[in-house]
Amino acid sequence: MKLKGLLLNDFYTLKDQYLSYIKILIPCMALLGIINAPEQINGLSDFSYLVLLLIILPMSLMMALFTYEEKCDYMKYILTTPVTRKNYIQEKYIFYLLHIGGMLLLGNFLIIVFSLINRYTPTVQDFQWLLKFSGGEFLISLVFGTWVIALSMRFSISKVRVIMIVAMGMFVGITVSFTASTMNAIINQVGTAGKISGIMIGIGAILLILTIWLFVMSFRWAKRKEL
Amino acid sequence: MEIIISSNTNQPIYEQITSQIKAMVMSGQLKQGDPIPSMRSLAKSLHISVITVQRAYEDLQRDGFVETTVGRGSFISAGGKQFYQEERQRQAEEHLLKAAEIARTSGISLSKLVELLTMFYEEDE
Amino acid sequence: MNALEIKNLSKKYDRFQLENISLELPQGCIMGLIGENGAGKSTIIKAILDLIQKDSGEILFYGQKLDDSQTDLKEQIGVVFDTIHFHEMLTPVQIGSISQLTYQNWNEKLYQEYLEKFKLPEKSKIKDFSKGMKMKLSIAVALSHQAKLLILDEPTAGLDPIARDDLLDIFLDFIQDETHSILISSHITSDLEKIADYITFIHEGKLLFTRSKDELLYDYRIAKCGEADFQKLKSEKDAVWRKMDYQYEVLLPEGNQIESNYPDCQFDHATIDEIMLLYVKGERV
Fold it and tell me: Most buried pick, A91, A188, C172, C226, via CB within 10 A?
């Protein structure tokens, strides 16, 4: 019940943000989906905005939420109501998960719709591929979300923003650099493709452990936060 | 019932309340058995703190003017009037004692004193 | 049982320290917490609500310790800060919906009545509200979940006299129930002079006194006198004094009892402001 109250507050707080995102994004996505279709992998419409939806949107919404909260000192008040610090942070994660879930559904739905509009019927293989791709994006999104929530319990939102920009920058940098051409170049330098995968898995593992640690710490930081 | 309090005087508000209620009892405006407002509602009406009214009611109860029963409220009590008369007489006696002392030590005669007292007493009638 | 008991509360910051604060708020009473800005009033309130960690001390609400998990206790406490802490785009109706889910004993009908009584437009965003309206909204929320204890941190700062008078009415109404209590921190002492039962004075992190308001207003005296009388008055119980250009000002907690001993001095009744001023700017034994 109390979590529902917290969720309601967060949705109300972000209401205007949602509206402005909808006004900008839908036209963009429609454009991308319809114009770019013939050139895409497997005939599926453009799916790059799935990345946008799943990673950037929930994260920036979360940061906007914490920005508003800091501005009006919301946490100070809400903890005087029958809401525990644990409730508070649990709800933040649930709120975030709801968003990624929503984006997953929306994104995949749009890909299929635009593909159909472009006279391409997705095959079973396409669905399987979409599933794997979505799963990957889901994980990445979860990682970023955990970082935003956890760090916001420990640092002010302006610091969190800096950290996340750096993290995003690194993420984009790494992703871009692992395009086919650079991959080949590195393989020639370093040796086998196996080693590359090894490095990637290593980085991935470190990231995952760090994220889990942040998740655990977020509860502790929320308990100790002075208001 | 009207109670008029002033925050501008040096007289404590609880005293203002007690003296006004006592005056109303003495003049017959409030009779035995008449209900008076509860402490809290009087505090609210007068815009003052509860503890002040509580002090007033305690003093009134001590002097026999008011009786408070839990659950039934506060009422004017009988004993107060007489007690008040006695108290006022005692105050008058004190003042007269002082006047007598001053007269004795400064050579004012008793008859002069009686004359003055009579004049003051009859002045307001 | 007291509504609120604070025992030996201490909290240390870099440049400021709250030392050994102890006080009791009986049920059915209003206690005013006074002190200069930065004296520690808000810190005390945050500490008792578990918003900051205390270095030491025990806080009891109706005999029970409050910690994060004691949500039943929090149901009975209504807190009002100096501004409303919801996002400015929310409306009173939305805040009501949120509060309904947050509090078990939320009384929506009562909340609507307060909104009407305070003339608060229920569908307007609170960013369009004046300071007084925001305050009244905070109070409407605090009064609509069957709270027994109201804690207010500077509720009347920035309000015009009419709004302040409305609020005082509301507080006196709240206290009609003998089990209800109020703790108000304020530096607008004239408000407290009207309705507070007890006054606690916090200065530089220490509690200087807790007295009944009537004692402060009617028993305390400020003596204005010359050098000779001052030397004698200095040794009276708990005297606090200040040397002015042409006279001494001496605060005497038992002034009403001793004023007849000093026929040459001017003995004035003290206002809470004057008492505070002397403690802050004066000297003591």
Answer: C172
Q: Is B51 on the interface with C (CB under 8 A)?
A: yes
Residue B61 shares a structural domain with residue B91: no
Which distant-in-sequence residues (6+ apart) come within 8 Å of A22 by Cβ? none
Total Cβ atoms within 10 A of residue C149: 20
For residue C244, the one-letter residue type is M
Per residue in C230-272, pLDDT (tens digit) is: 888 888 888 999 999 988 999 999 888 888 888 888 899 999 9
Cβ-nearest to C214 among B14, B41, B43: B14
Closest partner residue to C103 (CB to CB) among A77, A81, A224 is A81
| Same domain, residue pair C193 and C227 | no
CA distance B4 to chain C (A): 15
| Structural domain ending residue among the three candidates C152, C185, C211 | C211
Using beta carbons and an 8 Å cutoff, which residues of C are at the interface with A? Answer: 46, 49-53, 68-69, 71-72, 74-75, 77, 79, 81, 84-90, 94, 97-104
Is B95 an interface residue toward C (CB < 8 Å)? no
- For A191-205, C28-42, C170-184, which range has the lowest pLDDT when averaged over its residues? A191-205
ipTM for this prediction: 0.88
Same domain? For C58 and C167 the reply is yes
The vertex-A21 CA angle with A93 and A11, nearest 5°, equals: 40
Give the Cα separation of A81 and C103 in Å (integer).
7
Q: Are C231 and C101 in a shared domain?
A: no
Of the partner residues A6, A13, A223, the one whose CB lies closest to the CB of residue C87: A13
Nearest residue of chain A to residue C101 (CA atoms): A5
DSSP C164-187: HHHHHHHHHHHTTSTT-EEEEE-S
Instruction: Output the six-digit token pair for B47.
Output: 């815009």
Q: B73: which 2 tokens?
A: 């409220």
Q: Do A82 and C100 touch (CB under 8 A)?
A: no
Residue-number span of the structural domain to which C69 is assigned: 4-211
Give alpha helix (H) positions in chain C. 41-48, 71-75, 92-102, 108-117, 131-143, 161-174, 189-195, 213-214, 227-233, 255-258, 272-281
Q: In CATH, what number is assigned to the domain containing residue C190? A: 3.40.50.300
C166 burial type by CB count under 10 A (0-12 exposed, 13-18 middle, 19+ buried): middle
Are B85 and B72 in the same domain? no
Domain limits for position B113: 81-123
Tell whether B3 is covered by a domain. no
